[in-house]
From TrEMBL:
Cited InterPro entries: ER_ret_rcpt
Annotated GO CC locations: endoplasmic reticulum membrane
First-listed, main subcellular location of the protein, grouped into a coarse class: endoplasmic reticulum
Record organism: Picea sitchensis (Sitka spruce)
Entry's family note: Belongs to the ERD2 family.
Entry protein name: ER lumen protein-retaining receptor
Membrane topology summary: Multi-pass membrane protein
Location(s) in or outside the cell: Endoplasmic reticulum membrane
GO biological process annotation, one example: protein transport
Superkingdom of origin organism: Eukaryota
Keyword list, A-Z: Endoplasmic reticulum, ER-Golgi transport, Membrane, Protein transport, Receptor, Signal, Transmembrane, Transmembrane helix, Transport
Length: 215
């Protein structure tokens, strides 16, 4: 564990806490893409199949449980909670997320570390996470006006991936034979998708203006 990995984990956790805070306190999921939340739930479930079979550390197990449980609970709130679901903008959240799932699964079958059930699903989760934010970004572009909690949620998600890239760079220079092509390339793709959002996020912060993304 190094400082960049810890910072990445904490910003990832912060993104979840910010979203749960929005849902629990104001009983609203306005501006949040259910499609993206469903993709993240699929990402964590397929990635952490080793939760009860391979013990790494208490910290590792707790973080896995948090991300699986929180992603599933967020989907439940947006789909089934009698108050929260009313604020979900289904008409704006129209990105066909299955168009992301199918290519990612095919890519995982073709490009993986080992051709085993768990390794293929692990690769699938990495590829899917790289593009899971797309429905959310499209929804923000359509809605234009973004509330503070939604903006902070997406910011922390992007920051998490940025810290993880620094973690990989650090490990590459400090650990012998550390090389993982699949997460590195996927992480760079994911970070690139946030570039436009970060530009307008910092621009709105600098000018003390409400965050807006161009259509």
């Amino acid at each position: 564990m190094n400082i960049f990995r810890l910072a990445g984990d904490m910003t990832h956790l912060m993104s979840v806490l910010v979203l749960l805070l929005k849902i629990h306190t104001i009983k609203s999921c306005a501006g949040i893409s259910l499609k993206t939340q469903e993709l993240y739930a699929l990402v964590f479930v397929t990635r952490y199949l080793d939760l009860f079979s391979d013990y790494v550390s208490f910290y590792n197990s707790v973080m896995k449980i948090i991300f699986i449980a929180s992603s599933i609970s967020i989907v439940w709130y947006m789909r089934s909670h009698k108050i929260v679901r009313r604020s979900y903008d289904k008409e704006q959240d129209t990105f066909r997320h299955y168009l992301l799932v199918i290519p990612c699964f095919i890519l995982a079958l073709l490009v993986h570390d080992k051709f085993t059930f768990r390794e293929v699903l692990w690769a699938f989760s990495i590829y899917l996470e790289a593009v899971a934010i797309l429905p959310q970004l499209v929804l923000l572009q359509r809605s234009r006006n973004i509330d503070n909690l939604t903006g902070q949620y997406v910011f922390f998600l992007g920051a998490y991936r940025g810290f993880y890239i620094l973690n990989w760079i650090y490990r590459y220079f400090t650990e012998r034979h550390y090389f993982r092509l699949i997460p590195w390339v996927s992480g760079l793709v994911q970070t690139a998708l946030y570039a436009d959002f970060f530009y307008y996020y910092f621009k709105s912060w600098k000018n003390n203006e409400k965050l807006q993304l161009p259509a």
